[in-house]
Amino acid sequence: MSSDRFARFRAAVERGDADAAADLFTADAVFHSPIVHKPYEGRESLRMILRAVVRVFEDFRYDAEFSGPDGHVLWFRTRVGERALDGVDILRDGADGLVELTVMVRPYSAATELRARMAALLAEQGTG
Predict the structure, then answer these.
(1) Of the CATH numbers 3.40.30.10, 3.10.20.740, 3.40.605.10, 3.10.450.50, which one belongs to the domain with range 3-125?
(2) Hey, where are the domains in the chain?
(3) In sequence order, what are the beta bridge partners of 67?
(4) What secondary structure does DSSP assign to 67-125, as a single string?
(5) How confident is the model at residue 1 (pLDDT cuts 50, 70, 90)?
(6) Residue 122: pLDDT band by 50, 70, 90 thresholds?
(7) Against a cut of 0.85, is the pTM above it?
(8) Is 8 left (phi over 0), alpha (psi -120 to 50) or beta?
(9) DSSP string of 1-65?
(10) Closest to 105 (Cα-Cα) out of 36, 29, 16
(11) For residue 2, what pLDDT band results from cuts at 50, 70 and 90?
(12) I need a surface site. Which of 22, 37, 51, 71 has the fewest CB within 10 A?
């Protein structure tokens, strides 16, 4: 496991650099969304999601992180419009890069607002 990749992911997200964050993932990486049932497959799908996320989240910050033998968890807080939201990024690493990102968020009212805003941005990009 590469703690360096986890640190680089965190730094890229904190500075709003979706492309640098996406570049840390393997070409066949999988993204599990908190608001869409079917996983997104591939680094380029993940890149589009991350580009939209950095536009939707306001006052984003990581508050804590946790590591174990199976992955790394970054706990974040942010706003979506007027709704406070907190969640976690769960990262799994492989030999050649990050292989999986799972995001979980709460509360439901903020997740609903996140879904609406993300759907609009992804529709603009032709990926929704």
Answers:
(1) 3.10.450.50
(2) 3-125
(3) 72
(4) EETTEEEEEEEEEETTEEEEEEEEEEEETTEEEEEEEEEE-HHHHHHHHHHHHHHHHHH
(5) very low
(6) confident
(7) yes
(8) alpha
(9) --HHHHHHHHHHHHTT-HHHHHTTEEEEEEEE-SS-SSPEESHHHHHHHHHHHHHH-EEEEEEEE
(10) 36
(11) low
(12) 37
Q: Do residues 110 and 104 lie in contact, with contact meaning Cβ atoms separated by under 8 Å?
A: no
Q: Are 36 and 11 in contact (CB under 8 A)?
A: no
Place of tokens 């799972």: 102
Structure tokens at 99: 């292989």
What's the token pair of residue 126? 């032709």
**Which of 1, 4, 15 is closest to 94 using CA atoms?**
1
Is 80 exceeded by the pLDDT of residue 3? no
Examine the pLDDT at 118 and tell me if it is beyond 50.
Answer: yes
Separation in Å, CA 60 to CA 2, 14, 80, 101, 104:
24, 7, 10, 18, 15
Which of the 8 DSSP states describes residue 126?
A: T
pLDDT, residue 72, reads 97
